[in-house]
Design brief:
8 helices, two-stranded antiparallel ribbon, Aldehyde Dehydrogenase, Chain A, domain 1, globular, single chain, alpha/beta
């Protein structure tokens, strides 16, 4: 409900506002790479160099999509009908549900959250329950970077409860999932039932 309520305002927000928030996020993640890498290593089990590397990658993802906000494009093409123009624009789809796994707890959320926000969508983010600290850290940084209330919503819990609620919600316009093939098939089936856009990375 919070994401749905925030969508009209965020989808019409200025590209400079989105750029600034994503760039601030990238800058803070990079500045805190050792601290966040240590959190990731302790929580998820990667070696510290790998964890710091993943954290740097997350910063790079946010920086890339900060740049993309300034390159939003459309097309104007000729029509076969006289005195008629054809204009193609890209518009946000609405509330995007994001379900991420435990094995890349900062990078995978970054590459799903950053583009969703860059293009004006609001987000409901459910991380794997094994890595709540990494998920909270990313959301906290984004909120402090100036993200308006309701644009990004962190929900914790089991996939069978929280994920299922997301799948059943008619307010979720699109969903992206990374995880097992079995769960991905259920995400697809539920999304088809709701005529919802979906993207899956399985196996």
């Amino acid at each position: 409900a919070a994401a749905k309520a925030a969508f009209p305002g965020w989808s019409r927000s200025g590209i400079l506002e989105r750029h600034a928030i994503l760039k601030k996020t990238a800058d803070e993640i990079l500045a805190r790479k050792d601290e966040l890498g240590t959190l990731l290593a302790r929580e998820e089990g990667k070696t510290l160099p790998e964890a710091i590397g993943e954290t740097i990658r997350a910063a790079q993802i946010f920086e890339f999509f900060a740049g993309e906000t300034l390159r939003l494009s459309g097309e104007v093409i000729p029509s076969v009908r006289p005195n008629i123009g054809v204009e193609i624009t890209r518009e946000a789809v609405g509330v995007v549900g994001i379900i991420t796994p435990w094995n890349f707890p900062i990078a995978i959320p970054a590459w799903k959250i950053a583009p969703a926000l860059a293009y004006g969508n609001t987000v409901v983010f459910k991380p794997a329950e094994l890595v709540p600290g990494c998920a909270w850290a990313i959301v906290d940084i984004l909120v402090r970077a100036g993200l308006p209330k309701g644009v990004l919503n962190l929900v914790m819990g089991k996939g069978s409860v929280v994920g299922q609620a997301m799948l059943e919600s008619p307010d979720v316009a699109a969903i992206t999932f990374t995880g097992s093939t079995g769960t991905g098939k259920r995400v697809a089936a539920a999304s088809i039932e709701h005529n919802r856009k979906f993207q899956l990375e399985m196996g």
